[in-house]
Design brief:
The chain is α/β, with parallel strands linked by helices and 291 residues long. It has one domain: Alpha-Beta Barrel (TIM Barrel). It is 46% helix and 15% strand. It has twelve helices and ten strands. The strands form two sheets. It has an eight-stranded parallel sheet. Helix 4 packs across helix 6 and helix 7 packs across helix 8. The longest helix has 18 residues. The relative contact order is 0.14.
Length: 291
Amino acid sequence: MSKFNSFLASKPVLVADGATGTQLQQAGLAPGSAPEAWNLDNQDAVRAHYKSYLDAGADMFLTNTFGGTSVRLKREGLEDRAAEINRAAAQLAREVAGENALVVGDIGPTGEMMAPLGTLTHEVAVASFAEQAGALAEGGADVLLIETMSDLAEIQAAIEGARQATDLPIMASMSFDTKGRTMMGVKPEKAAKVLQELGVDVMGANCGRTLTETLEAVLKMREAVPEAVLIAKPNAGLPHAEGNQLVYDVTPDVMADYAKRFVEEAGVKVFGGCCGSTPEHIAAVAAVLKG
């Protein structure tokens, strides 16, 4: 049994971390710059970020690699360092987690449209995802999370690439933020059935517009595939501007209340936060879900 599956079997629910990008910006990351570069250039800040969620009570936290494919890193001129960046992120996470928490190798979308709608071919996407997944595994990740996907073709490429590179367990999550569908029009029910066919270990929803909408999406996934192991990492609501800052409207207490609903109503096994969620949000969630 993998370490990830051992954790799943031993705990009623696993608490995941919250946001990465907004937290690193508070630590001084310039808006618009690649957070992944800090895995090489500001490792102390990345360690501190990881530790903040561990101290909040998280059982697992994501590596700072959301935009870590070579396809996405090309925007920063870092595509040739993709493996190095991902390996370092996982190594730093492993240092912080020790053996008492899970390191989740984070894989986000490439930011490009898949062919035929766009120019990103299946072969290039698979190779880029394989490179990232392999480096995360080498760095010490326990499980992979392919997240915030909107296109079934891209999530399939990511799963294929990950399986080429490693035998780590795979969680896969899509973002339902457009009238109950993903940006590419995928319904939760369809996503669940495809992900079941692809044999992922855990499936679910993350990001999205509101806690309520993400809960609705997860409930539909549960209905479509009753035996699924589910993950939810909703945003802390929608942001609004206060001066020069974006402020998210969901408080830690509200997030904790919803965490109970996700677990009790949808049987979610892994719960955390996405954009706008902080260690304070995760501490409140952990207090409620762990008693």
